[in-house]
Each structure stands twice: as structure tokens, then as C-alpha cells.
């Protein structure tokens, strides 16, 4: 019988091999499939050149642009799958109006396009596209709370971690992703948050969305207005029905951090902390220490006040 650590080692290597094989199997055909035809590249290059004239070189960047953002978007997305594509240019809008200009050009030249918010998803043609235009929202990342309507307005480039930090002084939270660097694309295709058990999917909290349609027209979709079918389709539709430039979501009143008697989340502590806690022979007040695993010395603390 294999000893436990040898078994773990063998399984781990099988896992790595499996990961490598699945990457090769999925990545290779995707790259071949998405190699654009020369006329597509020409059309994209014409669209990019026209957009550079309209919006300027810092908002429309090509592989030869001096600014670093083209490379950051083309190769630096959180999900490295997006780095397999080489877009003809990257659009970095500052407003919905910029997105409208870009969409009009995409439509006029029939160019392939992709949209990148937090860049977490791996799907060929989703967050990046070979020979097409990638719209990155890295420069549209504001968040604001309206206490009268009790809603939060988000620009698509913000990450959930940043949004929650900004909202903390108001004592409200939004149903965002469970990792801080996940982006708002979650509102268009998922929505599991730490508050989900009590408040449902993140998409359930969506009140309205500004959407730039493929024609370049911008509409505001809600559950009850004339774009209610679009509103419904967005919840799972990702970038298939238009490009969202503004989200309005309902809030959850969680209180400010000083008012909370609990911490929800994971605290990673190094070996020194674990050894100290164990040497002291007692846990901090109201804390439960989950012992570190054999493989590493990280541990988790569940802290409650008053103690559980
Ligand atoms: C490590 C990890 C942890 C995760 N944890 C969670 C979790 O806790 N809860 C959960 O629900 N999901 C989770 N997910 C899934 C993740 O939320 C989804 O992949 C989500 O769609 C990512 O959004 P994004 O903005 O980061 O990614 P992106 O890849 O930028 O966007 C996702 C999709 O939406 C499209 N899109 C983005 N913005 C727009 C826009 N403004 N208009 C039109 N289309 C747009 C993109 O083209 C893409 O198709 C996790 C994924 C990973 C890899």
C-alpha cells in the first residue's frame, strides 16, 4: 500500500499532468479556430485606425502603441487563457459615450470583439479575441451609494473588493464575488456571494443596467420598462446582447466594520502565528483555531464576539 504522503505526491503529479493535457487539448484548437482571416484583420485594422482618430491613442491602443495598457489587457488578464489571443487593438473607454463610438465602428466594419471587466473568465472570444477589438473597462471603475434609493451604482471596471471597501463607511454591501479581484462580469453570468444564502444570486439584486447595443445605441434596461426582455437576457447573457456600462444594484445593510461582531472570510496566518497560538496554550478570546494541515502550516481562525 502506498504511504499517504507518497500517494499525495503521485496524485498531485497526475493532477498536474491532467491539467497540462486539458490545457493543450483545449488551447490548441481554440487558437486554430480563432485565427482570423486576412480580410477580418484588415477590417479590424481600419476600425482601429478610425477609432484612434476619433478617441485618441491612449484610449485606442495597438500592439505598437507606446503606452503599456495594450500589453496589460492582451496578456495580463487575471485568467491567462485570455493571453492566447492577439487583438488588433484595445479600447479603453472612459465613458458610455466612448463605448458607443467603439461599438459603432465594430458594427460598421463587422469586426469581432470581446469585453473584459475583471478578466476572470476563460472562454475563447469572451475576454479577448484574435485580430479583433477588446474593450477593457480598466479605466471605468467608480462606485457610489445613493441612500435615497438605497442602491449602489457601479461602473463595469471595478472589482468587488474595491467596491466593498468604498462602501464600508456607508454600512452597506453588494452581492459581489467571494474573491476581491473578481469583476462585475459576475452580474452577467453568475453571482454567488457570501450573502447569497440570505439574499439570493447577485443577479437578483440588479435593478437597472445601461447597455450599449451592437448598433451603438445606448438603452437603460430594467425589469419593467420596454427593455425588460434585454434585462432578463443580461442575467446570464454576458456580452452576447450588448455591453453594460453602468450597473445599479440593491444593497444589503451589513453595518460598518466597527459595528460588526464577527469576521466572515479566511485569514491566512504563517507558521509563526500558528506556533505562537499553540504555545500560548489558548486561543484568542472568541476564536476557534482550525489546526493546520500536514502539507502546510497555514491555519484559519473563526473569530466571534461574544465567543461561540
Ligand atoms: C478564482 C475564481 C473565483 C470565482 N469566484 C466566484 C464567486 O465567488 N462567485 C461567483 O458567482 N463567481 C465566481 N467566479 C466566476 C466569476 O465570477 C465569473 O467568471 C465572472 O463572470 C467573472 O467576472 P469578471 O468581470 O471577473 O470576468 P470577465 O472575464 O471580465 O467577464 C466575464 C464575462 O462577462 C463579459 N462581460 C464582462 N463585463 C461586461 C460588460 N460590461 N458588458 C458585457 N459583457 C461583459 C465578458 O466578456 C465575459 O464573457 C470565480 C471565478 C474564478 C476564476
UniProtKB/TrEMBL annotation:
This is FAD-binding PCMH-type domain-containing protein. Residues 1-27 form the signal peptide. The keyword Heme does not apply. GO terms for molecular function: FAD binding; oxidoreductase activity. It comes from the Eukaryota. Keywords: FAD, Flavoprotein, Oxidoreductase, Signal. Pfam families: FAD_binding_4 (PF01565). Residues 83-254 form the FAD-binding PCMH-type domain. PROSITE patterns: FAD_PCMH (PS51387). Belongs to the oxygen-dependent FAD-linked oxidoreductase family. It comes from Ephemerocybe angulata.
